[in-house]
Amino acid sequence: MATLKGKNVILAVCGGIAVYKVCDLVRKLTAMDAAVFCVMTENAKKFVSPLTFQTLSNNKVYHDMFDTSSWDIEHVSLAQKADIVVVVPATANTIAKLAHGFADNLVCATVLATKAKVLVCPAMNTNMFEHQATQKNIMMLKDYGYKFVEPKTGKLACGIIGNGNLASVETIAETIIEEIA
Ligand SMILES: Cc1cc2nc3c(=O)[nH]c(=O)nc-3n(C[C@H](O)[C@H](O)[C@H](O)COP(=O)(O)O)c2cc1C
Fold first, then answer.
1. What is the CATH number of the domain that holds 174?
2. How big, in percent rounded to 5, are the helix, strand and coil portions of the chain?
3. Which of 75, 102, 135, 153 has most Cβ atoms within 10 angstroms of its Cβ?
4. In a domain? residue 88
């Protein structure tokens, strides 16, 4: 099995229905000895509790930019220690914010502050994905040098069949290995 020993993987988790699949990704990455740190948007916490990610990653989960219990500037320290930042599932909203340099939550601020590789794994309703606005934002992110794991076609949570399903956890893990192992 490939090893990610000594590698710091930051998972920047956004508020899409596919968040539950990221739990499995954390397990796969820790099984390969990666140090996994999860950062969550406020909306991601509505889908899966930080406690779940904390337990699976064996690390603190970061979600509050203004957490006064830590002296550290967390988005900067996470950004600096990252070998890769993986935005997963990347929502239309967060993709738009990243394309335009927003830094109003820990996910966006960490991506903006990092010099590490950034891997974006979109997942959303087909019409949201195919909308010109989203496609233009994705082009902007690709232009910044961010890598993508493209979504799959299949039955979506909203019931329709189309493109927008999160790529498989195996494909995402393999791409992380290709990028940093
Ligand atoms: C049940 C439910 C499922 C959702 N799934 C998605 C999704 O898969 N992809 C997406 O882009 N937005 C999805 N949304 C909308 C996002 O939660 C919303 O755009 C939110 O502002 C995203 O916030 P964030 O990008 O800060 O995490 C969903 C909303 C709900 C209520």
1. 3.40.50.1950
2. 45, 20, 35
3. 75
4. yes
Mutate to test the pocket of ligand 1, among 43, 107, 137 (most ligand atoms within 8 A of CB): 43
Name the residue among 92, 101, 113, 100 with its Cα closest to residue 39: 113
C-alpha dihedral, 158 to 103 to 134 to 175, nearest 10°:
-80
ω into 89 cis (within 30 of 0): yes
Task: Tell me the pLDDT of the chain (181 aa) as tens digits.
Answer: 789 999 999 999 999 999 999 999 999 999 999 999 999 999 999 999 999 999 999 999 999 999 888 778 877 899 999 999 999 999 999 999 999 999 999 999 999 999 999 999 999 999 999 999 999 999 999 999 999 999 999 988 888 899 999 999 999 999 999 999 8
Strand, coil or helix: 41: coil
Of all protein residues, whose CA lies closest to atom 22 belonging to ligand 1? Answer: 15
